């Protein structure tokens, strides 16, 4: 959580709607730490590396969502067309909208992660994606299926944008 230390003299990043951000820039001067350590515990290098590696693996699994969702949809579209009686244009829109919608999700991810933090934003992205997947699973019509697809795309976009930032923030400076 070293990135969440406020910069000395209020030199933090400009926050959402004019509020001060709690994140410090790397070139800002941080306040001096107390000589007694201030009660901060530092993990050993082996433990820290394992923790960072485990967090990195789980955060990177977010990137699998995009490829998996595109791949699964290309295999399912035949059955969706038969069950919901959709046209070829609707099939194309259903399959192709994910990339565009994930772009919109990634645009929203920056402000969201500044407000609630990177870890919680990754959790939010997972929840939004799961909600979209649940809606797609129970979709009785093309409109409901499309709504679920849009939700899943937003969740994927948020996750793809925030996961690399989170990984870089949890990595100790000596390992970057």
Describe this structure in words.
- 19% of the residues are buried.
- Residues 1-13 and 37-44 have low confidence and may be disordered.
- The protein has helices at residues 45-60, 62-84, 88-116, 118-137, 142-170.
- The protein has five helices and no strands.
- The protein has one domain: Up-down Bundle (Growth Hormone, Chain: A).
- Helix 3 (88-116) runs parallel beside helix 5.
- By secondary structure, it is an all-alpha fold.
- It is found in: Membrane.
- Pfam families: Sugar_tr (PF00083).
Helices, strands, pairings?
Layout: H1 45-60, H2 62-84, H3 88-116, H4 118-137, H5 142-170
Helix pairs in contact: 1-5, 2-3, 2-5, 3-4, 3-5, 4-5
What are its keywords?
single chain; 176 residues; mainly alpha; Growth Hormone, Chain: A; 66% helix; disordered N terminus
